[in-house]
Amino acid sequence: MDINARVEKLERENRRMKKIGIVAAVVVSTLIIGGQAKTNKVVEANEFRLLDASRKVRALLSMSVSGGPELTFNDASGDFVVALSTTPSPSLTLRPIGTGESVYLHAGTTESPNASLGLGLPPNGVLMVAGSHNAIEMFGSAGTFRVNLDEDLGGPRIAVTDKEGYSLNLGRVDVEFPGTGQNERTSAASLVLFGKDKKVMWSAP
């Protein structure tokens, strides 16, 4: 093969490689532009639903009736097991599958700056509150009893109340003594028993 034939062959191969390079560049550019278009695409909707194979809603992102975004996850029966909401206060609720009990956490609002953690579901369970009002409340089944630990009167108080309304109060509490009608706020070292009519039955000191 003479020199001219070799040069012509190299030129043909060079032109073919250029064409391949141009095609490859076009394909890559298309993929990049297409990927950017998908990444930057904005989807607007009032509600997004995640369905299972039976077309049941298992997750829902929507606007709540109070006007804020809300995300819920449902079990196979359609009952929610996890709920995350922003209004009226940021909150998270967890509910074991197949039960009516729940665990919830509320961050509080501007009007009521008290964060709370609840375990169970009233009338059963435990409620803990922190903020401008600090308290722990425990509720027995079917209202059989209620235990409060708080500082509502500027000092510690533990109150135990049964379903009939009788209560034992250890710590600071406002009382009106029978007979004299005198009102007094007791100290943290006091013990007061109230009847179901909220009148003092016994106190010490």
State the gist of this model.
By secondary structure, the protein is an alpha+beta fold.
Notes on the protein architecture:
- The N and C termini lie far apart (123 Å).
- This protein has 205 residues and is of the alpha+beta class.
- The protein has one helix spanning 3-39; strands spanning 47-51, 57-63, 69-74, 80-85, 91-94, 103-106, 114-121, 124-131, 135-139, 145-150, 157-162, 167-171, 174-176, 183-185, 191-194, 200-204.
- It folds into three domains: 1-42; 43-125, no CATH class; 144-205, no CATH class.
- The strands form two sheets. Strands 1-2-3-4-5-6-7-8-9-10-11-12-15-16 form a 14-stranded antiparallel β-sheet, with no helix packed on it.
List the helices and strands and how they pair.
Layout: H1 3-39, E1 47-51, E2 57-63, E3 69-74, E4 80-85, E5 91-94, E6 103-106, E7 114-121, E8 124-131, E9 135-139, E10 145-150, E11 157-162, E12 167-171, E13 174-176, E14 183-185, E15 191-194, E16 200-204
Mean pLDDT: 80
User: What's the quaternary structure here?
Assistant: single chain
Overall number of strands: 16
| Count of the domains | 3
- State the share of residues found in helices, binned by percent: 10-25%
H/E element sequence: HEEEEEEEEEEEEEEEE
Describe the sheet with the most strands: 14 strands, antiparallel
Count of alpha/pi helices: 1
Q: Which parts are unreliable, with pLDDT below 50 for 5 consecutive residues or more?
A: none
Classification by helices and strands: alpha+beta
Specify the overall morphology: elongated
Share in β-strands = 35-45%
Sheet with the most strands: spatial strand order: 1-2-3-4-5-6-7-8-9-10-11-12-15-16
